[in-house]
């Protein structure tokens, strides 16, 4: 998996582990008294996870999978001359971050650095056309929201049909047709990326308000937070932040394989073939659902 900054090269954490473990007294000197409890409080990870992280940082390394993708805004501080480019439709000064995650809520690709005025589709096009960008093997796809094109590699919901998870809870009526059923299933599965972003912002306070570092450094901080979130989730049996309630303000609205670049998707475009495939999929899901519910 590559996690990239828009202007610089990619960063990755490796699976190799240093053969010289950190001594316990060295960890105590870093963390101080309190052991595991203090480490979770200060660093949002257990003492064992922190020890593994320290070992990984002594070597060069990498993380590396199909899930969902979306963009999220993270507020930043930029020079006055750049504010118009980073201004979102809600007049916030933000960077538009593309995130891709798997079903386990681990980031598999992040592109940071695009201006807040850039559309999600534009950022995605940039990601898949980069030399070391987002690689989607032909035959695979990511779930995306209605703001993206429904095309090969990117399965979006039907527009103008109820969709979001909160529209289906608390006793709302059951799906009335195949389009509503498809959107309900799609929303439930794609919700993983919104929860992933929500957890990221909840865990790292520095992402909830603009810092005063240069924009290049701010972009690197976003990447580092994503990598650290992956690391924590891979090295702790229970993520202490996931079990806690995610505030609404934190949630956005709305195996290692070397892939041959000749067999990957390099454009975001609709096609009759892909549209028909979604139609066939929605029809099949509807027939199965009706059979299960005796409709």
UniProtKB/TrEMBL annotation:
InterPro entries, per the entry: HARBI1-like (IPR045249), HARBI1_dom (IPR027806)
Residues in coiled coil: none
* Residue intervals of the DDE Tnp4 domain: 69-230
**What are the names of the required cofactors?**
a divalent metal cation
Q: Which UniProt keywords apply?
A: Hydrolase, Metal-binding, Nuclease, Nucleus
> What's a Gene Ontology MF term here?
hydrolase activity
What Pfam families does this protein map onto? DDE_Tnp_4
- Any GO CC annotation of this UniProt entry: nucleus
Question: Which compartment or compartments is the protein found in?
Answer: Nucleus
Would you identify the family this protein belongs to, as annotated?
Belongs to the HARBI1 family.
> What's the protein here called?
Protein ALP1-like
What organism is the protein native to? Answer: Arachis duranensis
């Amino acid at each position: 998996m590559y996690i990239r900054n828009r202007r610089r090269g990619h960063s990755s954490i490796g699976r190799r582990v240093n053969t010289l473990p950190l001594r316990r007294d060295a960890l105590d000197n870093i963390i101080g008294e309190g052991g595991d409890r203090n480490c979770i409080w200060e660093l949002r990870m257990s003492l064992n996870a922190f020890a593994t992280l320290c070992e990984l940082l002594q070597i060069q390394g990498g993380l590396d999978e199909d899930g969902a993708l979306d963009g999220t805004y993270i507020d930043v501080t930029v020079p006055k001359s750049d504010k118009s480019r980073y201004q979102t439709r809600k007049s916030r000064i933000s960077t538009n971050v593309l995130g891709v995650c798997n079903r386990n809520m681990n980031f598999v690709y992040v592109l940071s650095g695009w201006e807040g005025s850039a559309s999600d589709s534009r950022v995605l096009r940039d990601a898949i056309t980069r030399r070391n960008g987002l690689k989607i093997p032909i035959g695979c796809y990511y779930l995306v929201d209605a703001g993206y094109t429904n095309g090969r590699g990117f399965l979006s919901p039907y527009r103008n049909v109820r969709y979001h998870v909160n529209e289906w809870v608390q006793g709302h009526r059951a799906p009335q047709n195949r389009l509503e059923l498809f959107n309900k299933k799609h929303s439930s599965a794609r919700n993983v990326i919104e929860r992933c972003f929500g957890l990221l912002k909840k865990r790292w306070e520095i992402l909830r308000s603009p810092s005063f570092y240069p924009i290049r450094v701010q972009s690197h901080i976003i990447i580092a937070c994503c990598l650290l979130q992956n690391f924590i989730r891979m090295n702790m049996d229970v993520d202490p932040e996931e079990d806690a309630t995610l505030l609404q303000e934190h949630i956005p609205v709305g195996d290692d394989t070397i892939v041959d670049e000749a067999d990957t998707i390099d454009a975001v475009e609709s096609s009759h073939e892909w549209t028909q495939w979604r139609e066939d999929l929605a029809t099949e899901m509807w027939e199965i659902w009706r059979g299960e519910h005796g409709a």
